[in-house]
Amino acid sequence: MGERGRGCCPPMDLMRSEPMQLVQLIIPIESAHLAVSYLGDLGLIQFKDLNAEKSPFQRTYAIQIKRCGEMARKLRFFRDQMSKAGLPPAARSVTQDTSLDDLEVKLGDLEAELVEINANGEKLQRSYNELAEYKLVLHKAGEFFHSALSSAEAHQREQASNQTGEESLETPLLSEQETAIDSSKQVRLGFITGLVPRDKSMAFERILFRATRGNVFLKQATVDEPVIDPASGEKVEKNVFAVFFSGERAKNKILKICEAFGANRYSFHEDLGKQAQMITEVSGRLSELKTTIDAGLVHRGNLLQTIGEQFEQWNFLVRKEKAIYHTLNMLSIDVTKKCLVAEGWSPVFATKQIQDALHRATQDSNSQVDAIFQVLHTREMPPTYFRTNKFTSAYQEIVDAYGVAKYQEANPGVFTIVTFPFLFAVMFGDWGHGICLLLATSYFIIREKKLSSQKLGDIMDMTFGGRYVIMLMSLFSIYTGLIYNEFFSVPFELFAPSAYVCRDPACRDATTVGLIKARDTYPFGVDPAWHGSRSELPFLNSLKMKMSILLGVAQMNLGIIMSYFNAQFFKNSVNTWFQFIPQMIFLNSLFGYLSVLIIIKWCTGSKADLYHVMIYMFLSPTDELGENQLFAGQKMTQVEQSVDGEILFSPYSILIISDETLVLLLLALVSVPWMLLPKPFILKMQHNRHQGESYAPLPDTEESLQSGANNDSHGHEEFEFSEVFVHQLIHTIEFVLGAVSNTASYLRLWALSLAHSELSTVFYEKVLLLAWGYNNVIILIVGIIIFIFATVGVLLVMETLSAFLHALRLHWVEFQNKFYEGDGYKFYPFTFTLLDNEEE
Amino acid sequence: MYGFEAMTFNIHGGYLEAIVRGYRSGLLTAADYNNLCQCETLDDIKMHLSATEYGPYLQNEPSPLHTTTIVEKCTLKLVDEYKHMLTQATEPLSTFLEYITYGHMIDNVVLIVTGTLHERDVQELLEKCHPLGMFDSIATLAVAQNMRELYRLVLVDTPLAPYFSECITSEDLDDMNIEIMRNTLYKAYLEDFYRFCQKLGGATAEIMSDLLAFEADRRAVNITINSIGTELTRDDRRKLYSNFGLLYPYGHEELAVCEDIDQVRAAMEKYPPYQTIFSKLSYGESQILDKAFYEEEVKRLCLAFEQQFHYGVFFAYMRLREQEIRNLMWISECVAQNQKSRVHDSVVFIF
């Protein structure tokens, strides 16, 4: 690790990000397009924007980008039309070589044709809709007149019989008119019929009333089905109305109001014969129009079909061209306008491939001059690039979500591949649940090819992306499940029969007096006899709690060791001596010591109380431990006695009084100022020395010309002693407090594991066994269904999620804060492979 | 509860205030305007705007663009944002938001009535109306012959109805009448809005009264300048001024008797906030006055964002967006008519 040069270890690509270089490409203008296209296929270079100060339309290739945008708009229009017509674009067929210019012409023609067809169709549709409305008016208004006529006749007859001449409120207006006409030959009433949108009908009526001062009669009838409005082409709920009025002025007003309300008027004859004639005429024309429209639709469908076949290909081509021109716009153009100058980051290993691509581009475009490739020197921080594969990328994502590694910084992703699923499994230990997870994730892995090509939902997508993480998680939880001996909370005697047996065959006093050990210790994991016993919880708690602390201390130590590798790699001996070493001492003299005690206690079976040991280590370090003594020299006033570790662990030395804790405590206390004080002062000294030197050399003129934009990063950063000191102070306090709180934080491993096993016990015993106890098939089926849902919903989904989050936290906070800076930025190469995924 | 808005404001107004501040950060910046002013064609403008928040509204427009399309689409964005806020708002914020649109409503009414007076097509007029000031029966305005009818037929249903109490006459409509009507309505509207904001109290009242007072004073100056040389009597002119604002009441007395622009200037320079505006003008130059007022207004509107927990930000945002759309219209017009030298004449930078 980190010593790739020395050759003692095999190279670990994931440990350090790829070495990068800032390269400059000088490409002749005639081969530029092809070269960028090849580089996009290669996808290993990240171009820098050399025209950042220019606005988009002032750049060299603005016109081409505009053309691409225009084509993209046409394609969007086609897609829109296709989705309206219900035709999905076909999957991408073999790519034929069409040039952009041809495509542009073709798209233009197709768009014009489509627009024309649409316009014609709309015109026809409009007249069709108008006729349909007219027909409705004829029907509905015919009904008004018919009913009015019949009631008028009835009224007349009534009048004739009564001869009272009195008017009631129910008297139909029309009949009154007829009587009026009959009697005094007064002004003939005009009327207007038409359709008005239903939501406006109330306002319409109100305005009509106000405008004519009530001298109007309005009759409305609702049309049940929504009518297609001729003007907008949308379905609208409408009312048929008939307005009766008198006088020319009123007519003008009403016409204006109709217009203002978007009410379509249709002429109507009172004469019944003419009405019938109109209806047949309109129906005839309607069916005629219908066939014309259908023919138009078929034609349009065919056109869209042909577009759909090549749509995806065109779409990809246009996007690719647009990406190429965007990239070309980032290159600065030479004063002679003969060549383009590109700058960008690329991994060192890609040098050959890039040169190859440039060479091919030169040949294919018959250019006279070859493109020039040269490496620039810069102090700018290069981007971080890890070559991940489909297995490691998900783990790297977990790390990147916290922060992208600084360039060439030790990458926690390497360890995350194992530690993440393992810590997850510690919390999720159940091999039954593990197998369920494994089955689910193997479905994703087996159907990987198919699933990766199609679009999944949000949550599915996330699960699919993390399929290899879930696979390792499930494998590890099968492993820890075997250790915990849990299968849906049921213990199995898988490896050997239980070591414990009852005292007598009846097993009466099993819960009171206890079992006796008859065989050898159970070979792997927890003895099944513990399950369901009264001492199950205290036993498992003590086991898991201690295990959590061991795992935690181990992982934190790993984190601190990583900081050592970082210090070695970046040749920073200050960090080694004044950060790594005191941190190691501090952590291990307190919690490393605790871990050692735990292991000794496990190995020896001592009954010492570790709480007591740890607490009195601080409260009264000089006191004697008494019966809590685990090994010789545990309390020791003289340093010399503790040197030889061998004695400490020898079986004879148990319960011999001595004072090592005092030494450890002193070491821990010393390491705090060791961490805090020297580093800022040393940094200050170094800075002062540097400043003395840096007067002499002038900035390298050649270099500063070449890497124009980045020469501002050349100067030394401002050194503020107080700032550095405060920073170091915070760092020290954070570490010292963190050592305690982070160790405590690892106890979540125990807590979640406990919660998981208790929950699954509850579901198993209180649901499945309870239902089983009734001896009733229906209850049993219901019980099984509830059990399955609870297991899947709560244990497999929610518990997985919570254990995942806790494992994530343990990595991000407890592990990575020991060494990980995470202030780098990611390498985003210019590549066409991503074009497919991005949706506009 | 002045000074205690912080405790309760966010219960109802917090979400929308966050939204409006987010919208505000999408306003075009001086750098954007610089780029826009360098555009050669309308397509360049579209290309530049597609990188801003206007992008989704313009991207599907086919290429030969017109100024009206750009303005229409930009206004559409404003309207969408306004509608989003209005649907999310609760009382009294929703009423406050509605008040903002009444000004457009008055303009639309006047536009339609003037249009019909000159026998324009109603549909054509409707297209010219500001979409924020639309109401259901707006097209019916064409039917009315005089103020009384106008009121009785249409406006009685709209929120503008109370403002009409001042100007119901049976006189036939003519240009002069309509202009007086517009100003009377505006006066009533501003006063009503002012009262409403005072009722809301707190920081809203404080900030809005400042903004509205500026608006009222600006209108007073405009009325004065526009009525110089017309047959409007001093008393009539005096009646059109809103009864609040910095100029009320003594400034109004002076403005009412002004006979030329220099007298207006003399009257206004007594008020320190307006001194700076008028000192920018050389004598006899009144067309820059609009721009100077707009600049001052934008400055004040931007200041409204400096304080939290009040409704003034909504008003300020709407006004700023409108100013931005005016700017875009001016730039596009200049570009379309090849008058690029005049492009800076009327653009008011917001940031």
UniProtKB/TrEMBL annotation, chain A:
<keyword id="KW-0175">Coiled coil</keyword>
<dbReference type="InterPro" id="IPR002490">
    <property type="entry name" value="V-ATPase_116kDa_su"/>
</dbReference>
<comment type="function">
    <text>Essential component of the vacuolar proton pump (V-ATPase), a multimeric enzyme that catalyzes the translocation of protons across the membranes. Required for assembly and activity of the V-ATPase.</text>
</comment>
<keyword id="KW-0813">Transport</keyword>
<keyword id="KW-0812">Transmembrane</keyword>
<comment type="similarity">
    <text>Belongs to the V-ATPase 116 kDa subunit family.</text>
</comment>
<keyword id="KW-0406">Ion transport</keyword>
<dbReference type="InterPro" id="IPR026028">
    <property type="entry name" value="V-type_ATPase_116kDa_su_euka"/>
</dbReference>
<keyword id="KW-0472">Membrane</keyword>
<dbReference type="Pfam" id="PF01496">
    <property type="entry name" value="V_ATPase_I"/>
</dbReference>
<protein>
    <recommendedName>
        <fullName>V-type proton ATPase subunit a</fullName>
    </recommendedName>
</protein>
<feature type="transmembrane region" description="Helical">
    <location>
        <begin position="422"/>
        <end position="446"/>
    </location>
</feature>
<feature type="region of interest" description="Disordered">
    <location>
        <begin position="693"/>
        <end position="715"/>
    </location>
</feature>
<feature type="transmembrane region" description="Helical">
    <location>
        <begin position="547"/>
        <end position="565"/>
    </location>
</feature>
<keyword id="KW-0375">Hydrogen ion transport</keyword>
<feature type="transmembrane region" description="Helical">
    <location>
        <begin position="467"/>
        <end position="484"/>
    </location>
</feature>
<feature type="transmembrane region" description="Helical">
    <location>
        <begin position="577"/>
        <end position="600"/>
    </location>
</feature>
<feature type="coiled-coil region">
    <location>
        <begin position="100"/>
        <end position="127"/>
    </location>
</feature>
<feature type="transmembrane region" description="Helical">
    <location>
        <begin position="777"/>
        <end position="798"/>
    </location>
</feature>
<feature type="region of interest" description="Disordered">
    <location>
        <begin position="152"/>
        <end position="172"/>
    </location>
</feature>
<feature type="transmembrane region" description="Helical">
    <location>
        <begin position="652"/>
        <end position="677"/>
    </location>
</feature>
<keyword id="KW-1133">Transmembrane helix</keyword>
UniProtKB/TrEMBL annotation, chain B:
<keyword id="KW-0406">Ion transport</keyword>
<dbReference type="InterPro" id="IPR035067">
    <property type="entry name" value="V-type_ATPase_csu/dsu"/>
</dbReference>
<dbReference type="InterPro" id="IPR044911">
    <property type="entry name" value="V-type_ATPase_csu/dsu_dom_3"/>
</dbReference>
<comment type="function">
    <text>Subunit of the V0 complex of vacuolar(H+)-ATPase (V-ATPase), a multisubunit enzyme composed of a peripheral complex (V1) that hydrolyzes ATP and a membrane integral complex (V0) that translocates protons. V-ATPase is responsible for acidifying and maintaining the pH of intracellular compartments and in some cell types, is targeted to the plasma membrane, where it is responsible for acidifying the extracellular environment.</text>
</comment>
<dbReference type="InterPro" id="IPR002843">
    <property type="entry name" value="ATPase_V0-cplx_csu/dsu"/>
</dbReference>
<keyword id="KW-0813">Transport</keyword>
<comment type="similarity">
    <text>Belongs to the V-ATPase V0D/AC39 subunit family.</text>
</comment>
<keyword id="KW-0375">Hydrogen ion transport</keyword>
<dbReference type="InterPro" id="IPR036079">
    <property type="entry name" value="ATPase_csu/dsu_sf"/>
</dbReference>
<protein>
    <recommendedName>
        <fullName>V-type proton ATPase subunit</fullName>
    </recommendedName>
</protein>
<dbReference type="Pfam" id="PF01992">
    <property type="entry name" value="vATP-synt_AC39"/>
</dbReference>
<comment type="subunit">
    <text>V-ATPase is a heteromultimeric enzyme made up of two complexes: the ATP-hydrolytic V1 complex and the proton translocation V0 complex.</text>
</comment>
<dbReference type="InterPro" id="IPR016727">
    <property type="entry name" value="ATPase_V0-cplx_dsu"/>
</dbReference>
